[in-house]
């Protein structure tokens, strides 16, 4: 900047307007600026954990931990004895589901709660959630029973049955409710399930005696035979959108059947009374909050009892930050329980992460030498841990699958999280009491809330449970990353002059023209006549449009093909075939169209048509990424990280070749075009799968079936990742390949 | 003596204006005379009469229902300002606003129609929606009704310390035609469903679902009683025990015996309390209770001004049946399993179980009198409900009544439920639209004895007020019977609809349905859009959602009547509560309130708008001033004369003649120099700070 200013210093002419000058300077130094922007963006991502702020409870009404927990030792005893009783029952009975349901109904009724059963059938897809790579056991591909469709469901007798109990808050109007969910799997019922249900009962009975309830408490015990998520989603669906003929006599018959199976032996008349309404789907008003919790036996980690929190909903939607804060503050400050967020194992031990952390630490040491108060870096170990949490959180949001049953609530704008308590085998009672008090405290706090969750953030990342990165902070790296795209596009379509002679050019130009207005006019005229852009612009637009349309078609084809009833492998092949064919068609049409245009207009040399194509590609990619950032931020971030270098660095191979052999070459230029070429190849529709396979092939069971199923599940969960890959990444990669392989006019012309 | 001193203080308040000392002396002389005088007034029953009753009923889930019933009778509403017993506040209200009927209720909690019953007179007519509900019928020309209603709401608001004045806004007030009001209730049973729409527009109805109820409402209510809570049954109202309850409904009902006739003021308080020991789960305790355990008080006699004062304990029909069965099983355990012999025994009406001490429970003290309900039909397969009477005349502070029920065994029974289970709910999620659904599910455990219900079609009247911001689409009203959609005209006999007007009036829906007798499930659904409110129309807790008041349903049936065989007509005056129970009625059911989440703006938005506006204004004025003040010609002249400062000039002179690389080098070294100076300066600063 300083250079050009002095360059202009000599001329006595008035300076051009500052905005124009700024734009000119930006375009002149676009390569350096975009490089620095990208690097700054990456660095900004890396320092996100240091920018994280401490969480605080934003909503005053929550008052976490203000009331004393009434959950006492007798409740702990009840939890444990119920668990033992359940285990005994289960070992005695063949039909676990019936035994457990019957026990639940009896116990719920004994507490004076309204109770009913919610029978439901196998959901249309047997896809259970969801904690995808972290614990592969949880992730059931929908291979088995996938052929069941909606039509068959009507005829099928309900095969699963959830039990629901409702405590009517004694002094409230009953138009709001808090839902507690304790899942159990009748096919896989053992100690942990019994403990979870026992704790559920103890808590439920404790709450049934509470006079402070302002909201009804709904205890949902979903039969998670097909996974927790479908069971909860099914119940919520019926709660909010009851099927139009849900009250048909057919349904009644089914309920009658259920009632009979439940009350096969003699009971007290009290239960008979309630059995009459056992089939009613009872409601409790607007659901304010959902809380899913389960107890797992395990070992204490580092001598502290831990709670694992899952919060990511479908498409990476998060519950209100206050909810997590409440859970955290009660756990840490009252019950001295350790909370942790689920992380993908392995990230923490990445050496480069530790190295980066150490580098930051060293830099911090340096700055502290200069100014002692400048301390920003975290210790390397903490940094690695926070970064692992952040990456995992981003990863879950990118995949877009909910990490648990709480995701089902998110579809109805209900904030929910899943808590998993680790119960050690020794000192069980002590921990159970803590867990009970914690849950009671959370429910009490939620009960205090007057309005729905709205006070705190919904858009945030957590780098630790008490550290959050709000939207205002994490948009900065994204902005830095994406900024270079429009800059570069502008540089391409306003080719000010070649970088070497820029300075003199500008000065001579400015000396010629008197007023800025006139000059702009002149420039425009020049561009129109000289470069003959309109033709190549049209061509580029046709090309980009064709590729984009093809990408939309590919997405549509995926959707259409997923509806058919064939094997996954066949579907994948089918889709690939369709996509390849349609790409050919798209290019043929494009060639035809541009050919006809060539015919019409004078055959002037379309000198640098690839630059125009690149400019349009850059522009459309920038717009796509910006739009995607509002839909799913981490997806757009990862998109920016992968697409920006590709878009910036791509040059036709011929061009790079000539550049490498020309006189004005520089090492930086050669390196840039080499990186661009490699990157483009790596991110291409063929390169990327190969890359993933070569890196993660040994970790994930990648075969054509799984890939297709994964894509289908993304489609089903309405994850933003799939549209990103198909509608943004794919056309961009194809266009970049096109640019890479495009032929330049021979040099003589 | 305690009563006397109280009475003096009570009466003293009525003698306003007289000098205190004189009044004291005067009263001390004539207290005994005054008391007898008051009695004579009460005994005559011509001018004014006051009676107090308490109905207690054990409920099937171990809780106890307490229904306080105070009746005040004023024969003529003369212009004379003085009443002896009848509260002046109410008589003034009636006179000023020409009220023919008025009902005001404050309720906390919800009546559990499934467990606590809906077919009994108490449950059917005293279960009220949570919050405040007010309806009134006026005896004024129809153009006067609205102003009268507005004034009435303000008067009641002051009288009962509640925000009833919010009901003055016409946007929440309805004018029902098919329900509420004396003329309708009486006409309906006789004329059937023929057009009995009353002269329109004399009744107004409003509800405040969110109004909190507390002692501040109870105290003014008690002030209407002649003895307040200082004597008589109202002494039981210990505030902590009352507000710990599971249901609490305070009600004031003002009626006229005929237009312009005697004024009848009924004050009821319906409480559902839980005996203390039941609170802990899993305790094998029986639901024993006594007045002291429920209220922490004993009954130390009657209100001296009351004409009659009774505590009645009701044992409902299914409970009596269960007890009888239990007693039978105790005496002849072998026959329990035998179905036929059991049937036979039940038919044996001669068998009576001791009401106060039987295998199921023990009552103390022994009741003064027992009334047996007379069954309407000849069918005696059902047991009759019993009413145990304790006359408070026999009790005093020396001999307080502490009614207690001690169970010997847990007895299970189910209260008499209404013909239908009613639920109202919202369908859909999101802030855009939804549906409102009312679902009626048949209770098939109705006693066979009720042929009226069993054989004929069931009549239901549904009354619903929907605030204007829930924009109903009336054409989407759909009725489904047993899951199949039926044409509306098949089941709806009468429908009155008042469409909503934005910010002016709510939508009011009155539907009279006739359901076939074998219907098991009926549902009515209607779609709606959610409206947008102005920013100043939102309440402070807008993000909570907006309350929709309860819907009201009415099933005409004779089942809510209780007639007692042993009650001679001569004694009827003595038992106003039993008289009340004998009135023909219908099952009244209120649904729960609903909460409708509406789209709420970000309330920090005005702040943002202000910030933006200020920025724009600042930019505008800044550039305007710049343009006005700037003299371009002068600037150009200056620029020509000295293109840059002396420093710049010297730099450019220094730069002249240097090669490009040298220039670059100089510049870079300059930048490094400046940075170095800055760092050194900073370091020095820190250093001095440390020092």
UniProtKB/TrEMBL annotation, chain A:
Q: Which residues fall in a compositionally biased region of kind Polar residues? A: 507-517
Membrane-crossing residue ranges in chain numbering: 26-48, 540-562, 574-593, 633-654, 666-696, 721-741
- Which organism does this record belong to? Marchantia polymorpha subsp. ruderalis
| Keyword Nuclease (UniProt) | no
Question: What processes in GO biological process is this protein linked to?
Answer: attachment of GPI anchor to protein
Q: What is this protein called?
A: Glycosylphosphatidylinositol anchor attachment 1 protein
Q: Name one GO cellular component term.
A: GPI-anchor transamidase complex
Pfam families under this entry? Gaa1
**Keyword annotations of the record:** Membrane, Transmembrane, Transmembrane helix
Q: Where is this region: Disordered?
A: 507-528
From TrEMBL, chain B:
Q: Which GO terms describe its biological process?
A: attachment of GPI anchor to protein
The cross-references to Pfam families, in alphabetical order and at most eight, read: Gpi16
Q: Where is this region: Disordered?
A: 331-362
Q: Tell me which InterPro entries the record gives.
A: PIG-T (IPR007245)
Per UniProt, which keywords does this protein have?
A: Membrane, Transmembrane, Transmembrane helix
Among the entry's GO cellular component annotations, what is one? GPI-anchor transamidase complex
**Segments crossing the lipid bilayer:** 21-42, 607-628, 665-685
Q: Where is the composition biased (Basic and acidic residues)?
A: 337-354
Q: Which domain of life is it from?
A: Eukaryota
Q: Matching PANTHER family, A to Z?
A: GPI TRANSAMIDASE COMPONENT PIG-T, GPI TRANSAMIDASE COMPONENT PIG-T-RELATED
Task: Please state what the protein is called.
Answer: GPI transamidase component PIG-T
Identify the species of origin.
Marchantia polymorpha
């Amino acid at each position: 900047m300083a250079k050009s200013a002095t360059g202009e210093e000599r001329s006595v002419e008035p300076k051009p307007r500052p905005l124009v000058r700024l734009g000119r300077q930006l375009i002149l130094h676009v390569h350096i600026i975009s490089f620095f922007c990208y690097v700054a963006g990456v660095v900004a991502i890396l320092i996100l954990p240091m920018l994280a702020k401490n969480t605080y409870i934003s909503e005053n009404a929550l008052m976490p931990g203000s009331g004393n927990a009434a959950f006492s030792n007798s409740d702990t005893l009840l939890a444990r004895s119920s668990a033992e009783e359940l285990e005994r029952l289960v070992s005695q009975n063949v039909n676990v589901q019936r035994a457990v349901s019957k026990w639940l109904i009896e116990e719920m009724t004994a507490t004076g709660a309204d109770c009913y059963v919610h029978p439901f059938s196998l959901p249309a897809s047997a896809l259970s959630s969801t904690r995808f790579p972290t614990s592969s056991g949880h992730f059931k591909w929908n291979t088995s029973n996938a052929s069941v469709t909606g039509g068959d469901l009507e005829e099928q007798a309900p095969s699963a049955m959830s039990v629901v109990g409702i405590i009517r808050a004694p002094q409230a109007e009953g138009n709001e409710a808090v839902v507690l969910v304790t899942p159990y799997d009748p096919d896989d019922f053992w100690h942990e399930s019994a403990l979870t249900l026992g704790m559920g009962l103890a808590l439920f009975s404790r709450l049934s005696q509470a006079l402070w309830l302002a909201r009804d408490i709904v205890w949902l015990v979903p039969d998670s035979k097909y996974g927790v998520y479908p069971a909860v989603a099914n119940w919520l669906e019926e709660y909010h959108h009851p099927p139009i003929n849900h009250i048909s006599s057919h349904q009644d018959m089914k309920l009658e059947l259920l009632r009979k199976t439940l009350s096969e032996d003699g009971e007290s008349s009290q239960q008979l009374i309630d059995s009459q309404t056992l089939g009613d789907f009872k409601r409790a008003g607007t659901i304010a909050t959902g809380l899913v919790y389960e107890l797992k036996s395990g070992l204490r980690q580092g001598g502290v009892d831990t709670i694992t929190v899952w919060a990511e909903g479908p498409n990476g939607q998060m519950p209100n930050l206050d909810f997590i804060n409440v859970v955290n503050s009660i756990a840490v400050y009252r019950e001295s329980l350790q909370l942790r967020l689920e992380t993908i194992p392995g990230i923490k031990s990445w050496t480069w992460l530790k190295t980066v952390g150490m580098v930051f630490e060293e830099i911090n040491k340096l700055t502290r030498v200069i100014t002692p108060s400048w301390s920003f870096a975290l210790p390397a170990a903490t940094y690695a841990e926070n970064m692992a949490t952040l990456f995992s959180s981003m990863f879950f949001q990118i995949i877009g699958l909910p990490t648990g049953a709480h995701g089902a609530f998110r579809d109805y704008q209900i904030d929910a999280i899943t808590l998993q308590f680790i119960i050690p085998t020794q000192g069980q009672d002590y921990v159970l009491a803590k867990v009970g008090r914690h849950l009671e405290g959370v429910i009490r706090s939620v009960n205090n809330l007057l309005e729905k969750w709205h006070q705190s953030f919904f858009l945030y990342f957590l780098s630790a449970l008490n550290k959050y990165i709000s939207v205002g902070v994490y948009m900065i790296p994204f902005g830095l990353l994406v900024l270079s795209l429009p800059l570069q596009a502008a540089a391409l379509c306003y080719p000010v002059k070649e970088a070497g002679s820029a300075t003199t050019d500008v000065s001579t130009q400015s000396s010629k023209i008197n007023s800025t207005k006139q000059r702009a006019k002149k420039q425009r005229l020049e561009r129109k006549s000289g470069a003959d852009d309109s033709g190549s612009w049209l061509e580029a637009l046709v090309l980009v449009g064709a590729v984009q349309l093809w990408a939309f078609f590919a997405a549509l084809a995926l959707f259409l093909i997923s509806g058919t009833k064939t094997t996954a492998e066949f579907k994948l092949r089918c889709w690939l075939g369709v996509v390849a064919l349609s790409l050919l068609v798209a290019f043929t049409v494009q060639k035809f169209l541009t050919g006809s245009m060539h015919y019409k207009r004078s055959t002037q040399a379309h000198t640098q048509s690839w630059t125009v194509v690149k400019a349009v590609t850059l522009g459309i990619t920038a717009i796509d990424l910006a739009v995607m950032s509002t839909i799913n931020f981490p997806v757009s971030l990862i998109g920016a990280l992968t697409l920006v270098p590709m878009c910036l660095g791509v040059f036709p191979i011929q061009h790079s070749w000539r550049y490498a052999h020309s006189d004005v070459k520089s090492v930086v230029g050669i390196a840039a075009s080499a990186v661009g070429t490699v990157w483009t190849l790596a991110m291409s529709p063929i390169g990327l799968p190969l890359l993933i396979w070569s890196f993660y092939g040994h970790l994930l069971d990648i075969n054509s079936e799984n890939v297709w199923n994964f894509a289908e599940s993304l489609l089903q969960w309405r994850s933003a990742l799939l549209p990103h890959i198909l509608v943004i990444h794919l056309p961009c990669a194809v266009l970049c390949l096109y640019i890479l392989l495009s032929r330049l006019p021979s040099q003589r012309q | 003596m305690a009563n006397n001193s109280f009475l003096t203080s009570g009466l003293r308040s009525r003698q306003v204006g007289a000098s205190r000392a004189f009044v004291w002396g005067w009263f001390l002389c004539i207290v005994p005379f005054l008391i007898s005088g008051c009695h004579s007034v009460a005994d005559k029953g011509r001018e004014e009469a006051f009676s107090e009753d308490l109905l207690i009923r054990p409920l099937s889930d171990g809780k106890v229902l307490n229904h306080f019933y105070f009746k005040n009778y004023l024969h003529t509403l003369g212009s004379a300002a003085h009443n002896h017993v009848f509260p002046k506040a109410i008589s003034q209200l009636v006179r000023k606003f020409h009220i023919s009927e008025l009902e005001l209720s404050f309720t906390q909690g919800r009546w559990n129609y499934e467990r606590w019953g809906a077919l009994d007179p108490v449950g059917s007519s005293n279960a009220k929606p949570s919050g405040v509900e007010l309806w009134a019928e006026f005896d004024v020309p129809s153009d006067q009704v609205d102003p009268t209603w507005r004034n009435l709401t303000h008067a009641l608001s002051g009288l009962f310390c509640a925000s009833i004045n919010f009901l003055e806004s016409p946007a929440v007030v309805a004018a029902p035609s098919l329900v509420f009001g004396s003329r309708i209730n009486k006409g309906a049973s006789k004329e059937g469903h023929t057009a009995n729409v009353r002269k329109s527009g004399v009744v107004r109805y409003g509800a405040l679902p969110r109004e909190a109820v507390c002692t501040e409402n109870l105290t003014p209510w008690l002030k209407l009683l002649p003895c307040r809570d200082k004597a008589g049954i109202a002494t039981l109202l210990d505030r902590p025990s009352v507000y710990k309850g599971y249901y609490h409904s305070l009600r004031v009902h003002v009626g006229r015996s005929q237009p312009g006739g005697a004024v009848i003021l009924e004050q009821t308080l319906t409480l559902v309390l839980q005996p203390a020991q039941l609170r802990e789960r899993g305790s094998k305790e029986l639901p024993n209770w006594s007045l002291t355990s429920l209220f922490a008080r004993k009954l130390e006699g009657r209100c001296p001004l009351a004409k009659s004062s009774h505590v009645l304990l009701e044992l409902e029909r299914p409970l009596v049946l269960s007890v009888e069965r239990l007693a039978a099983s105790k005496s002849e355990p072998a026959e329990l399993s035998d179905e036929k012999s059991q049937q036979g025994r039940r038919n044996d009406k001669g068998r009576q179980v001791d009401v106060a001490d039987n295998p199921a429970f023990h009552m103390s003290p022994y009741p003064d009198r027992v009334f047996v309900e007379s069954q309407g039909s000849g069918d005696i397969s059902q047991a009759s409900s019993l009413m145990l009477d304790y006359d408070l005349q026999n009790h005093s502070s020396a001999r307080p009544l502490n009614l207690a029920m001690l169970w010997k065994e847990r007895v299970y029974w189910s209260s008499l439920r209404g013909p239908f289970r009613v639920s109202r709910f919202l369908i859909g999620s999101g802030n855009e639209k939804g549906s409102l659904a009312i679902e009626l599910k048949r209770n098939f455990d109705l006693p066979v004895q009720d042929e009226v219900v069993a054989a004929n079609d069931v009549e239901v009247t549904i009354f619903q007020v929907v605030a204007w911001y829930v924009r109903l689409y009336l054409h989407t009203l759909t009725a489904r019977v047993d899951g199949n959609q039926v044409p509306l005209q098949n089941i709806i006999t009468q429908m009155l609809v008042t469409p909503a007007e934005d910010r002016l009036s709510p939508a009011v829906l009155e539907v009279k349905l006739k359901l076939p007798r074998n219907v098991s499930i009926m549902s009515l659904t209607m779609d709606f859009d959610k409206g947008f409110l102005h920013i100043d129309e939102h309440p402070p807790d807008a993000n909570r959602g907006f309350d929709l008041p309860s819907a009201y349903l009415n099933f005409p049936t004779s089942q809510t009547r209780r007639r007692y065989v042993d009650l001679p007509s001569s004694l009827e005056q003595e038992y106003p509560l039993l008289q009340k129970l004998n009135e023909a009625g219908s099952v009244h059911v209120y649904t729960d309130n609903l909460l409708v989440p509406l789209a709420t703006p970000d309330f920090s938005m005005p702040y943002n708008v202000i910030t933006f506006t200020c920025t724009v204004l600042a930019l505008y004025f800044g550039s305007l001033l710049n343009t006005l003040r700037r003299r371009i010609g002068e600037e150009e002249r200056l620029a020509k004369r000295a293109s840059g400062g002396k420093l710049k000039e010297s730099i450019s002179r220094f730069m002249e003649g240097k090669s490009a690389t040298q220039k670059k080098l100089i510049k870079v070294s300059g930048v490094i120099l400046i940075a170095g100076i800055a760092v050194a300066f900073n370091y020095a600063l820190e250093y001095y700070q440390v020092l």
